[in-house]
Amino acid sequence: MKKAFFPLHLASVLFGTSKTAAQIVTDYFAKVDAGEIETVGELLSDEFEAIAPFSPVPLDKQSWKGVGYGFKTAFPDMKHKILLCVEGENAVAVKGIFRGTNIGSYMGNAATGNAVKLPFNAIFELNEQGKITSLSTQFDQKSFEAQLMAGMNPAAVAEALVNGIMNAADAGDANSVITFFAPDAKHYFGGVANTNEELKMRIAGLKAAFPDIHRTLDVLSFSNNVICCKGRLTGTNTGMFMGKPATGNKINVLVLAVYKLNEQGKVTEAWVEMDTATLMGQLKGEVPAS
Fold first, then answer.
1. Are 266 and 184 in contact (CB under 8 A)?
2. Taking burial as the number of CB atoms within 10 A of a residue's CB, which of 47, 148, 183, 231 is the most buried?
């Protein structure tokens, strides 16, 4: 590994520690690979922000820790090999290779057993206390997904995508949900187009109204980059919904969805419809949630 460091005494002045910025970044990768995510969090400032190819929006400290936990679960043997580490003024640039074998659930999808090898570049910025304030990482997301899904048939890949969306939505993790969509994706509910940001608000609203919300997939077909699926939405109304107080009633309604994908495997258009009449009847206690 090639390194370029500030003089040690200068690092002490700037960062209040005997470690250089490059050494702090090296520690960061070592702790990530070891799965010591809480320790990783101690290296990050409270204002930390990360930019990565799989998220159309910057991720805060807590969200980034969630990414770390998710990757360690999915790739228990993951390793970031640093090939080049160059230190500048309050910043460190890293070139490396990520390796790992997918033997755990990733984004709610079952393990594929595939090995992934992916070059990456990253730029870290640090404050005067030696805390990492920002991280911008770049890698070939399409190559990552291709390696991860290699050997799987297209229908299985489509099912993994839908399950990923549903599992993230069930958890109320709107930022993870929109990683499955193109930045300019359109989401149609009742024929009305919504943006990714509006989808995030919708997910948050449903999670607040139905904390135990759960989506299931019953039927799926895939052809010509279009996914058609049928499933169900269940939950208990213990929070405000559509401006009305909680009823405590359970819901169990049919949901139909169509997703159109681009060449990168991202959803560009989504049409989602549910049995609203049955939903409202169940909330009022007029229709059983069978």
1. no
2. 148
Share of the chain above pLDDT 90, in %: 79
CA dihedral in degrees (22, 24, 27, 31; nearest 10)?
Answer: -130
DSSP type of residue 156: H
Q: Average pLDDT for residues 203-226, to the nearest whole number?
A: 95
Residue 152: the pLDDT is: 80
Q: What is the DSSP string of 98-141?
A: EEEE--S-BTTBPP---EEEEEEEEEEEE-TTS-EEEEEEE--H
Output the six-digit token pair for 1.
């590994």
Interacting residues of 268 by C-beta distance below 8 A, sequence separation 6+: 181, 182, 184, 185, 186, 260, 261, 262
What confidence tens digit (pLDDT) does each residue in 10-51 have? 444 444 557 899 999 999 999 999 999 999 999 999 999 999
Map tokens 């999915």 to a residue.
Answer: 74
Assess contact for 118 and 140: CB atoms under 8 A. yes
Residue found by looking up tokens 């990757």 in the block: 71
Pairing of strands 214-223, 226-236: antiparallel
Q: What's the CATH number of domain 154-284, 3.10.450.50, 3.40.50.720, 3.40.50.880, 2.60.40.10?
A: 3.10.450.50
Q: 255: pLDDT confidence band, cut at 50, 70 and 90?
A: very high
